[in-house]
Amino acid sequence: MRPGDHFLIGADLVKSTDVLEAAYDDRQGVTAEFNRNVLSVMNRELEADFDPAAFDHVAFFDRRKRQIEMHLRSRRAQHVTLARLGMTVPFAAGETLHTEISRKFTRRSLESLCRGADLAPRRWFELESPAFGLLLCKRV
């Protein structure tokens, strides 16, 4: 970007822990299947032998870090081979594989992040019931 250019960034905003965790651990299990799909991708791309059914989906909001973390927790002790990498990975029962981080922002934290990238906040937009925010910035 050149000085004077504008940049519009959208961000998911911090909400109550109950709302965030329900969004990332839905009752229908859609997010759990999405999360387990990473194992199927590794099976295909890395010639691994993960058994997706041997892992439980875990999602929680870490308020201090302002992030949702998604993990897959091994239901039992097991060894998984990743043939393309020439390695075998042991998992203890209950051990997790960290699969995703989804950061959440406040207006202040997003503005600070942008300032650190030489973007001057110009205008903030959010819904009446804030779930998502847009920040228009100008490159300094």
Number of structural domains: 1
Round the mean pLDDT to the nearest integer and report it. 96
User: What is the total tally of β strands?
Assistant: 8
The shape, in one word, is: elongated
Helix content: 10-25%
Percent of sequence in beta strands: 35-45%
Order of helices and strands: EHHEEEEEHEE
With strands numbered from the N-terminus, the spatial order across the biggest sheet is 1-8-7
Contiguous uncertain segments of 5+ residues:
none
| SS-based class | alpha+beta
Q: What is the count of DSSP helices, taking H or I runs of 4+ residues?
A: 3
Radius of gyration: 19 Å
**Head-to-tail CA distance between termini:** 10 Å
Main pleated-sheet profile: 3 strands, antiparallel
